[in-house]
């Protein structure tokens, strides 16, 4: 025998029924604080520093590739 029960309720209703706390206000506050801190850090950083931080290995690899091509073609690029 198989019995199926469908419950139609909102997440808030299910949370209340199960006695779980509403953590949305805490999540909203934490997200707001994180956004403020990230915005402050971004404003304090120059675009060049940001690129070095976000793409350190990629940029170094690109510079090495440019040097390699320069050596292969006989041109010099500083």
Layout: helices, strands, pairs:
Blueprint: H1 11-18, H2 24-44, H3 47-54, H4 56-73
Q: Could you explain the architecture of this structure?
A:
The protein has one domain (11-73). The N and C termini lie far apart (79 Å). It is an all-alpha fold. The protein is elongated, with a radius of gyration of 27 Å. The protein is built from 4 helices and no strands.
Structural Rg: 27 Å
Task: Catalogue the unreliable spans.
Answer: none
List how many beta strands DSSP finds: 0
Count of all domains: 1
Average per-residue pLDDT, rounded, comes to 82
Continuous helix count: 4
Strand content: under 5%
- Taking the alpha carbons of the first and last residues, their distance comes to 79 Å
Query: What is the element string, with H for helices and E for strands?
Result: HHHH
Major sheet summary line? none
Shape assignment: elongated
Helix/strand/pairing class, anyone?
A: mainly alpha
Please estimate the helix content. Answer: over 70%
Quick recap:
This protein is mainly α. It has helices at 11-18, 24-44, 47-54, 56-73. The chain has one domain (11-73).
List keywords for this structure.
4 helices, single chain, 78 residues, mainly alpha, 71% helix
């Amino acid at each position: 025998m198989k019995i199926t029960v469908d419950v139609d309720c909102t997440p808030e209703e299910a949370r209340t029924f199960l006695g779980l706390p509403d953590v949305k206000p805490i999540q909203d506050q934490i997200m707001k604080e994180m956004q403020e801190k990230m915005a402050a850090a971004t404003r304090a950083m120059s675009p060049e520093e940001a690129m070095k931080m976000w793409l350190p290995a990629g940029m170094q690899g690109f510079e090495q590739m440019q040097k390699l091509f320069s050596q292969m073609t006989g041109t010099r690029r500083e």
